[in-house]
User: Fold this.
Amino acid sequence: MSVTYFKPRDRFDFSKDTLDIGNPLQWDRSHFLKHFFKRVFAIPEDRINEFYQRHLGYYLSHHTDGTEEIFFKYFWSLIERQLKVLLGTTVYDKNHLRNEREIVRLQKFTEMLISLDRWNIHKSNDAVIAQQESEILVLKQEVTQLKADLKKATALETEGYINIPEGYRNAVLHLHLQMQELKTPEGKELMFSQTQSVWMKMICKYFREGDKEINYETIRRYFPSDKREPGDKHADIPAKSKLFTINPAKKRS
Assistant:
């Protein structure tokens, strides 16, 4: 029955870009579905609509009582059924990568068919469930990737911090400001960053003053974005807090 809906491949038709179903030589029509999906997964993505239209034309020309709605329902049922089968496989299936490629291809067919569906056939319960399962699969894959990214991003995270005695926060800020001015013997900056926010974020994240968090906005005035023109909101570290001076070590012989 199913083979009567689709144009079979002509005998001795060895063209590589055919849209027809079957082999160029003898083939068992009872294996129609295998040949059908072999063609579905082989044709270029930009020929999906052409594939549908070619076989629709063949069906209508060979069935005087046939309609596009009848053909569409059958075509949709084939794509929907196979998509549900593939969505039911696990990532541990030995053919996982191939399954993923085929799922993507069937989803493209589904999108094309929905755009042609004047009868709202795709809104049946099975179709909606298949679409939801497809979307859930995509979301699960995204969650898996996000978890992997998060694990990698937080690999160096720590719950501990460096504690500064109450009232000595600015002394530590002064040390960080001095470190920005240090240069190597070749005259290059020892520690370079594009922005001052890197230093401020580092201090707020990994340091505490008296076991209390350091406020980003509070220390911001000590780290001007442009040191040549720091602006009115800039404040220098108070002299009483400049307890330590970092000096280059004497050259060793």
User: Anything to note?
Assistant: Helices lie at 32-42, 48-62, 68-87, 96-116, 125-153, 169-179, 197-206, 216-219. Residues 22 and 34 are 9 Å apart (CA to CA).
